[in-house]
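[Solved] Which block belongs to which protein?

Original post:
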Amino acid sequence: MHPMVKPALRRAWRSLTCVQYGVAPAHAVVLDPVDAATGRLLGLMDGTRGTALLGRLSAVGLLVEAAAGRPGRAGPEAGAVDTALDPLRADLAALSVVCPEPERALGTLAARRERRVRVRGAGRVGAAVAALLAAAGVGAVEVVDGGRVEPWETAPGGLPAEAVGERRVAAARRLVGRWSRGPVAVRGTGRRAAPGDGGGRAAVSLVVVTDRDGLGVRVPDPVPAEPWMAAGVPHLYAGVLEATGVVGPLVLPGGTACARCLQEEATDRDPAWPRLLAQWRSGAPHPLPACDVALATAVAGLAAGHALAFLDGELPASTGTRWEAAMPSLGWRSERLVPHPACPCGAARGRVGVRASGAGEAGSTMAGRSPARHGSLGIGGAHV
């Protein structure tokens, strides 16, 4: 192992003896005091040296494996830099900021190759979500939809203008293939995860519901979700309905409120709700959804980010929660969704804390991060 100080974190000296790595408070690290000798040592942590005297730097989460740093930084003794990582280098740098262990960022990125995600709906939101997940290194991204691409469904980052008139599923699959990443090497394991590796064999890790008209996202129908609930497949809702963007909830079967929970809760609050649902869900989908291109892109980006967090082993902020932003102000607000005691999913009688099972690393509970971390390192009597 040849670690290096995380290059993604910008370094600045707060004083002659105090150094800060990182600008964003969520991941910044402050080391104090730092004498001249220790400062020079930190500068030598460039991925070309071994692990002597580095235990405490690793403990405060400041080191990253050299292969996760800048291309070309690792010397011959550290092994050649894998050029297949280049399209994902910025994503890997972001993971290195989030992951405290030096090798975890590479392992997390490689684990994405084993994930299989199904996107249900290939409109402006769904197509962009599928492309983003493929570009982020998810191994198998399946798109399910019918019909043909309409002119108003095209968007930057989603279905291109030349796809108009083509079958939606074919156009979406071509888009995913264009952004699918190459194999990712995992240092020390002796194996490579290839594109789609496990895609035909692995179970679906997550379903992202991105119905084109948005009604099935804002008012989820329990019927399509029944197979996912029975199989224990997590599913995330995301879309745009009547100029309102929606991300969430992420449903963990048996752990958080499901579509039937939401329907039962709404009926308790409004006796007319079943009558309204019957009218909204009857007949053909709305022919021309009110789906602003900028709002759809924002929804797709947030949904893809939440999906990736779950696949990487975290519980995103949409777990059991719906996030909404309405035009024109576009201020995001959240609503915590409570499991209904009468729902057969059993979430109301279930766990107090829910874990992200089967995603990325071993499941981990969602925990808030401290604004900044402070560490001390004893080197030759100096403290950092």
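(Second protein starts here: sequence line, then its structure tokens.)
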Amino acid sequence: MTNILITAAGSYGDIAPYTGVGARLRAAGHEVALATHDSYAPLVRAAGLEFRRLPADPRTRRTDTADAAEQARPTGPGKSDLMRQATAFIKELGGGIADAAREDTGLLLLSATTAPLGHHLAEARGIPSLDLPLVPGAPTGDFAPVVSGGRSLGRWGNRAAGRLSLRIIDRLYADASREMRARLGLPPATPRTVRRRAEAAGRPVLYGFSEVLVPRPTDWRTGLDVVGNWWPWYAPDDRLPPVVEDFLAAGPPPVYIGFGSMAGGEGERLSTLAAAALRRAKVRGILQSGWAGLPTRHTSADADLLTIGEVPHALLFPRMSAVVHHCGAGTAAAGVRAGVPTIPVPVTADQPFWAARLACLGVATAPIPFKDLSTDHAVARLAHALTQATAAPARRDHATAAAHRLAAEDGAGEVLKAVERLVA
């Protein structure tokens, strides 16, 4: 039995997969704590894990600094502002990660956002660590960095852009790393130096996505392994709320529409747009409120529309005819797992990358960039995509086939095997 500390920071999609990993490790006899933000304490404790607090909760901040920290773009408008916000977020996070470890911690499992800080802690305490990112981060010629919009730059260009992305991340963590190393009594070392030491030593990294969507790059070094998705924990006896079951029973399978932690404050506009598109496409819909705050009250003309709060995608998505979402890594995988077609509406960061992957797999319509939902033709475009997704048998057949492949994977089980090798 080992005392394991998992650290994860950001939005729901950055945290929830680690509850599934933690529950699997706990079932194998390990003591597991998950350090994250206060907003996710109930989620962590429900999975049977010890909650430890990390500061800089994005639910209480005005900006998406957590996403900026993990997925900083090398180009694009607002880069300076994002860099400043991300640096401030990371500095606040560093002290919390140091405080989260206990004397009896025997292993650190680190998300992509927390890994550059967690490595200092592992060095100071002399304990092993394992990186568990949710998206491909190591440079490769197979594709451009996931935050570059999905367009290939050629093999040389892709690798060069990947190296540039790592240097930008090093800059983001420079101040926090300097403060953290001083606090832990470590000699000075830049994030780039620490990263290169880890690469030279062949530090293992397990990536929590599926090769169904992203085959392991052909030029990655040994030790960078794609193991399959880690699914958020939910109780075996969980059921959909009665109001959802009643709605599902009242007609044909509806379409899910949700934007997760994206589009904060745009709920009224998005709800109106979604309702109009659903009416035009003549399909029923379930809207998930999310951070956008989609309102729960609708007019009598929207009898075929229901707005809900948080429910497990694993329970809801298989009951849908299609899913419309922002294409965060976890939500994109959940749609594939459910075997239903997707209408991707990517907003930022890695979302265009996953949207393009879904389209290439044949399980999704052509992506609709979120900014296009503000145009005069937004209702017509979304309605057309809804019709394409729900009326084309071939797309559902592709989704069913992909779901069967995904079901054969056991990402959390691969983490358990790696942990037991590390602590043996």
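Accepted answer:
You had them paired correctly. Confirming on the second one: The radius of gyration is 21 Å.
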